[in-house]
């Protein structure tokens, strides 16, 4: 076990572990730490805590001290300098004619490094821009290209739910999100309704996906034949999170809701498509596809036409094919340019 302090450099982002170095910090304290780029200022997100050695990467960098009033003034001045740096960088980008959008700038605590974050459709040759920026700010310049999700995280905004974006408030890292999650959750496939401000699928689609994965293993699919306490019927609707299904009875055509534990799938009825896929079962082929497969099979079984020419008596002619007859002609053409061809008797 090792004692650590969790530090975050910005309001959002990944939490890094540091060695306390004898300092007792509280959540929310501002501290000065020793990073790979030199001294940096950060905020404590995890107070002194013992963690397993497998959760950390040795060696841990130390926490130098609790930030003083002078340290906070330096940090505030850096924030002002960053705004001026963005204005100057935007002007230089226009002068150099670069197709890039500047998103943010960040001064290191010691002022020995200035990082610019930008977005672009492709690769950008910014070598001349770096030289111009280094000549103005007299410090190390770094330009980092980021994606649209990181852009939304840095700028911040309000989502369609009316709340501040998750990525700019509490998300540490981006998790993979797929359109399959939206389908399994019964959401509209309209991209305008399931996309965030960044234009990508909303991060919140994966919040409940674990629950959906567990429930879909025991939920029957729509159209499955089931037996209920009131008789047999067909599933017409499912409420995955509530664990309920809507069944239409075969006898009178009526409807009713049941818990998934109170019904059973009849033999011969397909279970949920995901469960079938996991078990390796193949989906039934469509009639049109089956006809196509039969036609392809017949074509494969049909004998290929023989290349040998047939004589009038039905016997195979041993003469070479037309393709082979052209070979002497090619030789004659080659000889025509070098020496006269010999006449055959």
Question: Summary?
Answer:
This protein has about 350 residues and is an alpha+beta fold. It has helices at about 70-95, 125-135, 150-155, 180-185, 190-195, 210-215, 275-280, 285-300, 320-340; strands spanning about 1-10, 15-20, 30-35, 40-50, 65, 100-105, 115-120, 140-145, 225-230, 230-240, 245-250, 255-260, 265.
Topology (elements, then pairings):
Elements (H helix, E strand, L loop, with lengths): L1 E7 L7 E3 L11 E6 L2 E14 L11 E4 L2 H28 L4 E7 L5 E7 L7 H11 L2 E6 L2 H8 L23 H6 L6 H4 L14 H8 L8 E4 L2 E9 L4 E6 L5 E5 L4 E2 L7 H7 L7 H15 L20 H17 L7
Parallel strand pairs: 7-8
Antiparallel strand pairs: 1-2, 1-4, 3-4, 3-5, 6-7, 9-10, 9-13, 10-11, 11-12
Helix pairs in contact: 1-2
């Amino acid at each position: 076990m090792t004692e650590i302090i969790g530090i975050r450099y910005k309001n959002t982002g990944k939490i890094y572990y540091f060695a306390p170095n004898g300092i007792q910090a509280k959540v929310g304290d501002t501290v000065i730490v020793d990073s790979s780029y030199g001294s940096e200022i950060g905020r404590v997100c995890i107070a002194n805590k013992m963690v397993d050695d497998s959760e950390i990467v040795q060696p841990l960098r130390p926490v130098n001290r609790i930030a003083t009033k002078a340290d906070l003034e330096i940090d505030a001045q850096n924030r002002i300098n960053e705004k001026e740096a963005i204005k100057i960088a935007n002007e230089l980008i226009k002068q150099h004619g670069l197709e890039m959008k500047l998103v943010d700038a960040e001064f290191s605590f010691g002022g020995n490094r200035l990082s610019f974050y930008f977005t672009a459709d492709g690769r950008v040759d910014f070598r001349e821009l770096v030289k111009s920026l280094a000549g103005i700010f007299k410090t190390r310049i770094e330009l980092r290209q980021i994606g649209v999700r990181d852009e939304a995280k840095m700028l911040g905004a309000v989502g369609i739910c009316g709340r501040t974006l998750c990525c700019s408030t509490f998300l540490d890292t981006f998790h993979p999100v797929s359109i399959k999650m939206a389908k399994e959750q019964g959401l509209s496939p309209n991209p305008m309704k399931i996309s965030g401000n960044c234009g990508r699928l909303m991060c919140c689609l994966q919040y409940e996906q674990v629950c959906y994965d567990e429930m879909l293993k025991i939920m029957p699919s729509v159209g499955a034949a089931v037996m209920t306490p009131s008789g047999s019927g067909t599933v017409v609707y499912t409420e995955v999170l509530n664990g309920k299904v809507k069944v239409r009875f075969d006898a009178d055509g009526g409807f009713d809701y049941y818990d998934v534990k109170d019904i059973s799938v009849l033999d011969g009825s397909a279970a949920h498509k995901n469960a079938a896929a996991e078990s390796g079962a193949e989906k039934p082929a469509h009639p049109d596809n089956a006809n196509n497969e039969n036609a392809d099979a017949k074509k494969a079984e049909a004998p290929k036409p023989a290349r040998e020419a047939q004589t009038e008596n039905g016997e195979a002619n041993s003469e070479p094919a037309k393709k082979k007859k052209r070979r002497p002609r090619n030789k004659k053409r080659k000889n025509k340019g070098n020496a006269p061809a010999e006449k055959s008797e």
